[in-house]
Each structure stands twice: as structure tokens, then as C-alpha cells.
Amino acid sequence: MRILLTNDDGIFAEGLCALYDALCQDHEVFVVAPEAERSAVGHAITLSDPLRVKRVKRGNVFFGYAVNGTPADCVKIAIHELIGPEIDLVLSGINRGANVGINVLYSGTVSAATEGVILGYPGLAISLDEYKEPDYCFAAYFASILVDFLAQNFLKNPKICLNVNIPFLPANKIKGIKFVRQSTAPLIERFERRVDPHGNVYYWQCGERFTEQDPDTDVVALKRGYITITPLQHNLSDPELLSKIASWQIEF
Amino acid sequence: MRILLTNDDGIFAEGLCALYDALCQDHEVFVVAPEAERSAVGHAITLSDPLRVKRVKRGNVFFGYAVNGTPADCVKIAIHELIGPEIDLVLSGINRGANVGINVLYSGTVSAATEGVILGYPGLAISLDEYKEPDYCFAAYFASILVDFLAQNFLKNPKICLNVNIPFLPANKIKGIKFVRQSTAPLIERFERRVDPHGNVYYWQCGERFTEQDPDTDVVALKRGYITITPLQHNLSDPELLSKIASWQIEF
Fold it and tell me: Tell me, what is one Gene Ontology molecular-function annotation carried by this entry (chains A, B) (predicted)?
């Protein structure tokens, strides 16, 4: 397959390289990724500033293109300018840290996969549930298994977008795969107020914690040791509410 | 009502001020908005940098808080730190330019309203379909009508999130209100390649055009002269695909 590989941790991130190495034997892998970390950028795109592209080597060998934009920018410019439209899969990751629950909305990793689907390609986002000391060995192995499975079973569906999260456990402790919905339960979050050495107040956004309890959600299944696979869509309309409000009479 | 007002064009944007003026007689309006334009940032939030907050005056009177973050950041910090949880509505706009179709995903304006709903408040995003020479007079008037309608009819539903787009037409040319779904048809987009005076290549992302034809979508209804109202949700799971793939056997 011809795979476009991107992420939101930047082109030099360990997770992206691990995924590249796991796939490059069997597939043609094209790397177009942010030049530096662009986490939590959601589905941001860059319209007010120009995009610049640099060719990046790994050792002495050409590795891919680094873009001064967001993950969604990378997918767009890859397909429209750098690689061309002959792509079979848009793959994003491996992200350092899980992308489950409400955080899916904030995730640059997931948005790159969604952008793939918007442009007509299957999208796949892979994240590892460990931020501090990640080891991508098993996650990259599983990703390659999944890519091969999809290639044989499902990749003729350009509308498929899968968000995959992998627990950070030894392979024999992983309980299996669960196909689950995205949790929409709120996070417990807080801002930490500090004062800088010049006497000015600033805030760190932090302290999030999930409140979800339903075992059939990505949040809980991942926490319990399952690999979670959540199919995503990007139609934000609420059809139920739409039929409810269609009778409103608003005079103006 | 107690209304939290934000936007993605920045606290000094004309559209936000017009909305403030249209509402401040009848409601308590709290302004917390980006210190400068943060368009197309989608649902980005700021985790790697601290947030700073400035008190902003209009004339000699306190007007609101300017934040060096995204629209979603503004909503979070407003409710968690600056204004407190006693809010009846999160209102975002009036945006300079429409937010319909796939662009809803990229919109900071819409994300602020969605963030309101995530935090448990009704959300309302208002955009005017004119970028070059907007006049917010009618849009602000209509927004105030809609806010009053919602206050009396619907605002006890904290899960409601409405994306409202207003055509840039004289009031008597507006054909009415349509309750429509978000278009998910692809955009035609392109990158313009240029060379800077130092010989370096850069790209402008531009040239988008809608391909949607269905009159029951936000894109087409707006173009035809209707005010469009689209109820939004933030559950990205695809339930249909979920039930299809639940039987997959992936060996690893």
C-alpha cells in the first residue's frame, strides 16, 4: 500500500519513527508531519500564514517532509502538493498519550486521520496510553497487524476512520480488542494559577480526569487493559435535535 | 440571563462588539475572548504554554478579559477561573465569514460553543456570511431575537448547541430560517506555491469552494438566502460502522 504517515508530536517523534519502521518493509510510506510538536491543536488549519516545507533526512537517507503547520495542514499539503492523490491510507501516530473521550476533539493526531477521510481516503489514528516513558515496540507491531488486516478486509471503504488506542502493558497483559464508542462524559479539569518573577499572573491548564464509568466506552475499556477501536465520523449535525427544533417559529 | 460571550476573531472584533451591544441591555454579558484573531484553530486548546489574561476596556469602561489562547481555552478559563460556573449560555460570534459545511470542523467560533456544551452549558455560534466588508447590524439584531426565543423556550437544555449562519443581505431579502444539517461534501481546495525574495518556496492554503448540492444542508440553504440553524453534537463515534466492525477478528 501507499501510506501517508503523519502525527502531531512532530516528524522527529519516536512514535512516528517506530510506526515507519514497522511498515516500511511491506508498504511505501510517505512521511509528511509537523516540524515540531503540535499537540492538542484539534482540527486547526493554517490560513493566515504561509506554509513552508523542509526535506528531512534520517541518517543520510531522505525520510520525509516537515511542515510548519498542523497535522490537518500536513495531510492537505501532502495530497495536494507533495505526494499526490495516489494514497491508500492516511495513518497518524503513534501518539505519545491516549486520545480517548472528549480529548478526541482536541487531538491533532485524530484530526489528521479525519482530514484523510474528508479528502476521500481511509484514516487511521494510533495512540499509546503512556506519556512519560513510552515504548512503542508493541504498539507499532499491533499497528502493522491492523494495517495488514485493513488492507485485506476493509480499505476499499474510503469513509472509514478508526481511532485506535493501545494500553501501555506487556503484550501478554493486554486483554484483547474492544470496539467501543467515544465517551462524551465531561472531564474534571482545573487551571493552576501562578505568578511569574515579574509579578504577573499566568495559568496552566491541567489536571484533567475522566468521569466516565460505562465499560463500552473508549475511556473505560482502555483503562481496563483493552486495545480500543472506535470508528469516527465528522458529521457534527444532531439529527434528533434537528427534528425537534424544525417546528420552531422565530419571528424577526 | 448571564451570557458568556467569546469569538475567534479576537476581543476587539467588530462582530463581538455588535453582539455585546445588542444584548447588554437585557442580559448580563461577560466577555472572555482571544486577545487577537485565532481563526480556523478548530477545537485547539493550549496545554504546552501558560495562559495569560488581560483586563480590557472599551472607552473608559471595563469590557472583558483578553486571553492569549484559543476560543475553547477562553470558555474553559472563563468558567473555571474568571467568571465562575453561574452562566446560562455560551455565545460565540459574530464571526466574520460563514461557518458551514466541512468548515465547521475548522471553526474556532463553533468550537467555543461546543466547548460550552461539553462543560454543561447551552452553546450558540453566530456567523455572518461576509468576509470583506461585513456589517453586523442585522445579524446582531437577529441574534438578540434568537437569544430571547431560546431563553423562553429551550435554554433549560444544557446539551443544545446551535450553529447559526446569517446571509449578508438586506433584511427584506432574507428568505426565512431553515433548520438544516451540516454538509459533509468535500471542498475544492488548492495550495498556491510562491517563492520568497530569498529564493525559498512557501505555500498559501486557499481557493476553497463547496461542492454541496443538497438544499437541506447549511451550505446550500445559506447560499440561497436563508438563515441556517444547525444543531450540533460532539460525539464523533460512528454507530453504524461500530456495529459493522464489531465482529472483526484481528489476531495479534
Answer: 5'-nucleotidase activity
